TrEMBL record:
It holds the Pfam family Alba. The lineage of its organism: Eukaryota, Viridiplantae, Streptophyta, Embryophyta, Tracheophyta. It comes from Rhodamnia argentea. Residues 115-127, 135-150 have a biased composition (Low complexity). Residues 105-150 are annotated as: Disordered. This is Uncharacterized protein At2g34160. Residues 21-83 form the DNA/RNA-binding protein Alba-like domain. InterPro entries: Alba-like_dom_sf (IPR036882), DNA/RNA-bd_Alba-like (IPR002775), UCP030333_Alba (IPR014560). Gene3D superfamilies: Alba-like domain. Signal peptide: none annotated.
C-alpha cells in the first residue's frame, strides 16, 4: 500500500512543476521586448518555446511570435486556442476567457533580416534621385519660360 502512494506522489509533483520553456505572457506586467528577448533565450536553450496568454494579452503573444518569425529566429510549430473558465473575483461567478498557446521552434536560417529589405531600399533611393532630377528640370524649364516672357 505504501508503494502505491509513493508512485502516485511522483507524477503529481511533475504535474505541478511548470514547463521549462513556457512563457506566460501578461500585457501589464512586463514590456513587450522583455518577452521577445526571453523567448529568444529559451529558443537558444531548448530549441523551442511555448508562449501562452489569456484574454487581452493574446495580442501581445501574437506580436511576440511575429517579431521572432520576421527576424528569422523562429518558425511556427503549433497554435492552440481555447476557452478557460475563471472565477470573477468581483462578482463571484465563473467567466470564460480566451486562451492561446503558440509553440515556436528554432529556425534553420538563424537570426538574419528578410532578404527583401535590401532591394526595397535601393529601389527607393533610385526613385528618389529620379524624382529630384525631374523636379530640378521642371523648375529650370519654368524659370526659362518666365525669363522669356519678360
Amino acid at each position: 500500500m505504501t508503494m502505491a502512494v509513493d508512485t502516485l506522489a511522483v507524477p503529481s509533483e511533475n504535474v505541478l512543476a511548470p514547463k521549462k520553456n513556457r512563457i506566460q505572457v501578461s500585457n501589464t506586467k512586463k514590456p513587450l521586448f522583455f518577452y521577445v528577448n526571453l523567448a529568444k533565450r529559451y529558443i537558444q536553450q531548448h530549441n523551442e518555446v511555448e508562449l501562452s496568454a489569456l484574454g487581452m494579452a493574446i495580442t501581445t503573444v501574437v506580436t511576440i511570435a511575429e517579431i521572432l518569425k520576421n527576424n528569422g529566429v523562429a518558425t511556427e510549430k503549433k497554435v492552440l486556442t481555447s476557452s478557460v473558465g475563471m472565477k470573477d473575483e468581483n462578482r463571484g461567478r465563473v467567466i470564460q476567457k480566451a486562451k492561446i498557446e503558440i509553440v515556436l521552434e528554432k529556425s534553420d536560417r538563424g537570426e538574419s533580416p528578410p532578404a527583401t529589405a535590401n532591394t526595397s531600399t535601393e529601389a527607393t533611393t533610385t526613385d528618389t534621385k529620379t524624382e529630384m532630377a525631374k523636379t530640378e528640370t521642371a523648375t529650370e524649364l519654368a524659370a526659362t519660360a518666365s525669363d522669356e516672357k519678360k
